[in-house]
Design goal:
The complex is a heterodimer of chains A (about 400) and B (about 240). Chain A folds into two domains: about 160 residues, no CATH class; about 160 residues, no CATH class. Chain A contains twelve helices and twelve strands. Chain B starts with 5 loop residues before the first strand and ends in a 6-residue tail after the last strand. Chain B is α/β, with parallel strands linked by helices. Classes of the chains: A alpha+beta (about 400), B alpha/beta (about 240).
């Protein structure tokens, strides 16, 4: 038996291809939206992977350090290091800020870490790790900085000595790594004018500048200019130890919050990007409805253009299922063309997105099934119209 | 006349009910023998199209009897369950315009019917080529309908009507869009094919050019048929 749908597509392939390309661009946008969501989830996972931690210790009753602000004393790691099952523990700071790169502003996450400890960038594309205590930085390539370039952060300039890759915050901002001390200063130390102002205010406070108590004012002023806070302590557990079993005593005895890898992933994926995921989900739903409407409209219009042929086919005894099959196959053919175009176009434009777009083969397979289902559903309108055609219209004009 | 291709006895068709009922066909009697071509003529509104639709098993008559070959297909009700198969296998249609399927080539336009009837593709296409040769359009077998002249298209439409070797062909004003020469050529072909394939042909027409060619004519007026002898002019 001849494939009526195939012959019709071959006969008017130009119309089919152009329509399929239009539909494909829409499908490409849909695939990209899914890729944006996957990219967000992947960024979150990469952030956790690259930190090299098994447990994140943060301020009590917070979801820090990524989802909420968290502040700990910078010696907290010493006490944690002595807890059972802890192999290594190190302080880290995280600060989202904007830096100047050439003539443009770049949104980055400044990470303070101790060299050789958890939190250090695990691999470099070029250059070396930070070896000096101050004014050196390792930057993700997406910041746009090159080796030897200088980054202005707050009051100081930092020289880029190493470049890394896929080191991003959960929001997709590329990271800039500094030594812990530099990062603490960048985050907690006030500027000179603020320090002078703060000293004057302290000196003017009679309860802090008491007559007859020498050295009190100086001690208080000194403490105001020293930054002794960090955002979290990253902990690596000893081999074979259960992270939850190690985290529990930290929570209980150190009065801090301790999250295992699974709990932190839950915070990042299920809580932090949940709203964005819903937003993208809504877009996907709308795009699916728009795609279905377009396919339905196109197939319906094509079918109306063949009413006379369909009447003749019915008059000469063509079964309804043959006619319905022809329309269904055309809708599926259109969907297949659209999917191929959409897959190619999304793969072509994904690298140009500012944030990471992750196109998974499994998503592509699911999308293909969804496109086919949408096309099948969309063709029902045209099939109904075709089945209602009276074969008698072929007779008598 | 040996036997008949199609016989209609006392066929009636009423549209609607009660006060609004219209009797489109009041008394139709026709017999067309295998190999015979008869004309069915009548003014507008006389019931020609309704009769054609009843004969084509597209609409159901209200009363009467219809016999196709040796099989009664209507006798106060359809005697056959599958009217689509009846139309596909036992009735050929030729329309005012050829109405060829534009996305099939000439061969497949004809082969489609045997294929729909379940014949193998090769056999169906061989039958199509045989008919195209018989109708002198064999050289256009691979062409698309849009590449054919009007006369060629109508010959392909006739070939399609003959594809399943039906006992009867219903031709609805098949020469309307054609000039005299081509119109007479179509009638010549219908006569030749009717005899070659032993098919009864009913030609509904207004066309003054071809009416003299029929040996027998059925006039239909106000839903009643009247048989007349035609001139039977050679074409």
């Amino acid at each position: 038996m001849i494939s009526l749908a195939g012959r019709d597509i071959l006969h008017s392939w130009g119309k089919f291809v152009f329509t399929g390309v239009g539909l494909g661009l829409l499908i490409g946008a849909t695939l990209t939206m899914a890729g944006v969501y996957r990219g967000m989830v992947d960024d979150a996972r990469v952030l956790l992977d690259n930190s090299g931690a098994d447990i994140w210790v943060v301020q009590k009753d917070t979801l820090g350090p990524y989802a909420e602000p968290s502040s700990l004393r910078d010696d907290a790691y010493r006490a944690i290091r002595g807890m059972p099952g802890v192999a290594r523990a190190a302080s880290v700071t995280y600060l989202n800020m904007q830096v100047q790169q050439g003539n443009r502003d770049v949104r980055v996450m400044v990470v303070g870490f101790e060299p050789g400890q958890p939190g250090e960038p695990p691999y470099l594309l070029a250059g070396r790790q930070i070896t000096r205590s101050h004014y050196e930085a390792v930057a993700d390539v997406r910041t746009g900085f090159g080796l030897g370039e200088r980054i202005r952060i707050r009051r100081h300039d930092y020289t880029v000595v190493g470049l890394t890759r896929r080191m991003v915050s959960s929001g997709g901002d590329p990271m800039v790594f500094l030594s812990l001390k530099d990062a603490q200063e960048a985050q907690f130390l006030k500027d000179n004018d603020a320090i002078v102002n703060e000293r004057a205010r302290t000196a003017a406070n009679p309860s802090l500048n008491r007559p007859g108590v020498p050295g009190l004012l100086e001690a208080i002023q000194a403490s105001q200019t020293v930054s002794r806070s960090v955002n979290a302590v990253l902990v690596q557990v000893q081999a074979g130890r259960d992270a939850e079993a190690v985290a529990e005593p930290i929570r209980r005895w150190k009065h801090l919050e301790a999250y295992t890898r699974a709990q932190m992933e839950e915070i990042l994926v299920a809580k932090l990007i949940a709203t964005s995921a819903k937003q993208i989900g809504m877009f996907l739903a709308i795009l699916a409805v728009v795609s279905a409407a377009i396919v339905a409209f196109i197939i319906y219009t094509m079918t109306l253009g063949k009413i006379r042929e369909i009447a003749v086919l019915k008059l000469i005894g063509t079964r309804s299922r043959t006619i319905a099959g022809m329309i269904l196959q055309q809708a599926l053919g259109l969907g297949a063309i659209g999917f191929v175009v959409g897959k190619i176009s999304s793969a072509l434009w994904a690298p140009f997105f500012p944030k990471y777009v992750l196109l998974l083969p499994s998503d592509a397979l699911r999308s293909f099934a969804a496109v086919m289902a949408i096309c099948a559903i969309a063709s029902t309108l045209a099939i109904r119209a075709a089945l209602r055609v009276d074969p008698a219209t072929a007779i008598g004009g | 006349m040996d036997g008949f291709g199609i016989r209609i006895e006392n066929m009636r068709k009423r549209y609607g009910t009660g006060d609004t009922a219209v009797d489109a066909l009041k008394e139709v009697n026709m017999t067309v023998a295998p190999g015979e071509v008869v004309g069915l003529i009548g003014p507008s509104g006389s019931g020609k199209t309704t009769l054609l639709k009843c004969l084509g098993a597209v609409i159901e008559p209200t009363a009467g009897r219809m016999t196709l070959g040796d099989q009664v297909i209507y006798d106060g009700g359809w005697k056959i369950d599958d009217l689509k198969a009846l139309r596909r296998d036992r009735i050929g249609f030729v329309f005012q315009a050829p109405y060829l399927i534009p996305f099939l080539d000439v061969t497949d336009n004809i082969a489609l019917l045997p294929m729909l009837a379940g014949r193998p593709n090769g056999e169906a296409r061989a039958r199509a080529r045989e008919l195209l040769e018989a109708l002198d359009v064999g050289h256009r077998a691979r062409a698309e309908p849009s590449q054919l002249s009007g006369g060629e298209q109508q010959r392909v439409a006739i070939a399609r009507a003959l594809a399943n070797q039906p006992p009867v062909i219903l031709a609805d004003e098949p020469t309307a869009p054609l000039d005299s020469e081509r119109a007479l050529a179509v009638i010549r072909i219908l006569n030749r094919m009717a005899q070659q394939y032993d098919t009864a042909v009913i030609v509904v027409t207004h066309d003054e050019k071809i009416i003299p060619t029929f040996k027998r004519i059925y006039h239909i007026r106000d839903g009643v048929t009247h048989e007349e002898a035609g001139e039977g002019r050679e074409v």
